[in-house]
């Protein structure tokens, strides 16, 4: 029974803590513990500046934790919506080629899928450093979908693109990849309530996981109003 | 030659204790003492001794009784629903009863030398047919010694209250309540009955540093009419919060200790709940 439960766990976080190494800074969170199953959907809630994006970047391997462990037993994306990590002097095409090699994917297939989704057209031939933040995010999102991860880390996804593109993002992620795991930071409570089964709230150095997402939304709503 | 004082007594005989009516009637006949039943149209005479039978002490009998007695409405065996019902019967029977009223239970019948109002000899009745009276140990100590008097204080067992255990931590007692979550009731109950009067409830608790920053509200009273008090402990420590409520008639009572705002951390440990009649 225990083995079956453990096999379902795709992410295990133990005693995770993060404090930025500046004088007088307070911890963003301490002793954070949770697991995510291979089909789990966990929302990350918190007011601006409380540490949501930092947590996602730690989980995505972009930032180091101050202490604790992050153990992945499934593949995870980089934080979608995060436009960093590209080689700015390279074109979009070259960045796609580079990442295809890292993840051992066929370049042409990957390019076709990214081109179809991101709708960047001829801009793919331009250096990424000339892209707007929205273009970077669309490129990053398109690449993450093309590479196909077991778990998607989503940081304020709905801020990317116009309403039509946002709908396209939701379809690609939550409908066509409904059997994947997600961790999503968002202020859209309607989306959170509809898609997530659990939620983690970060506030004033404290972090707590709620198995009842409706309760988490209530608590977060109160925090925002306080 | 000394004369016996005039007896114009009032006996509270709840409708739930009809078996006692047979015993009382038989004793009154033997003593040649009139029993007046206003509910049957009887009117008290202008003079002479008599006993008026009423269902509750709040009925207007039209005169000031010289003596009072109340038949205790009695307890039932085991089970929360029956215990609450037993408290209801007692509360209604004791509602408005003077503190010096005689309390009639089955053991009164077997008492040596006791006579109700010094006139009615109840001995000889078959106590097997009589409601035994309030039983101790069913979780509501208020009626353990008959009608509660002003100044009587009762430590209530926490087991008769409902506690929020939604985020209960394994290994901790149920009185150690995790505050994480939405605003909600932490402690509520117990829905037993009290007779009319002013009743004070005092709740003692401890909070940690996080719990001490939260806002709470104490609500106390009947199910539909209650008083409330908002407070915030302002730090870790042990605290007591109390408040009065006037029950104008016997009522099912409810205490609610409310976490008035959402919390991401904090602990609340319930220590004791004390009930006191203050008026």
Give short descriptive properties of this protein.
heterodimer; A: 226 residues; alpha/beta; Rossmann fold; 2 domains; five-stranded mixed β-sheet; three-stranded antiparallel β-sheet; 8 helices; 23% strand; globular; B: 279 residues; mainly beta; Jelly Rolls; five-stranded parallel β-sheet; five-stranded antiparallel β-sheet; 3 helices; 11% helix; elongated
Largest sheet of chain B: 5 strands, parallel
CATH superfamily of the largest domain in chain A: P-loop containing nucleotide triphosphate hydrolases
- In whole angstroms, the N-to-C terminal distance of chain B is 42 Å
Q: How would you describe the shape of chain B?
A: elongated
Radius of gyration of chain A: 18 Å
pLDDT under 50 segments of chain A (min length 5)?
none
CATH topology of the largest domain in chain A: Rossmann fold
Largest interface: A-B, 12 and 9 residues
| Proportion in helices of chain A | 25-40%
Mean pLDDT of chain A: 87
Tally of DSSP helical segments of chain A: 8
Shape of chain A: globular
Description:
The complex is a heterodimer of chains A (226) and B (279). Chain A has helices spanning 2-8, 52-59, 92-102, 107-118, 133-147, 163-175, 189-195, 213-225; strands at residues 9-18, 29-37, 41-45, 67-72, 151-155, 181-185, 198-203, 206-210. In chain A, the strands form two sheets. Chain A has a five-stranded mixed beta sheet with strand order 5-6-3-7-8, with helices on both faces. Chain A starts with a helix and ends with a helix. In chain A, helix 3 (92-102) crosses helix 4 and helix 4 (107-118) crosses helix 5. Chain A has two domains: 1-77 and 150-164 and 178-226, 3-Layer(aba) Sandwich (Rossmann fold), CATH 3.40.50; 83-148. Chain A is of the alpha/beta class and 226 residues long. In chain A, strand 5 (151-155), helix 6 (163-175) and strand 6 (181-185) form a beta-alpha-beta unit. In chain B, the strands form three sheets. A five-stranded parallel beta sheet of chain B has the order 2-3-1-4-5. In chain B, strands 6, 8, 10, 13 and 15 form a five-stranded antiparallel beta sheet that branches. Chain B has two domains: 8-143, no CATH class; 153-277, Galactose-binding domain-like (Jelly Rolls, Sandwich). In chain B, strand 11 (216-222) and strand 12 (226-231) form a beta hairpin. Chain B is elongated. The model of chain B has no long low-confidence stretch (mean pLDDT 88). Chain B has 279 residues and is mainly β. The A-B interface holds A 201, 203-204, 206, 208, 210, 215, 218-219, 222-223, 226 and B 180-183, 261-265.
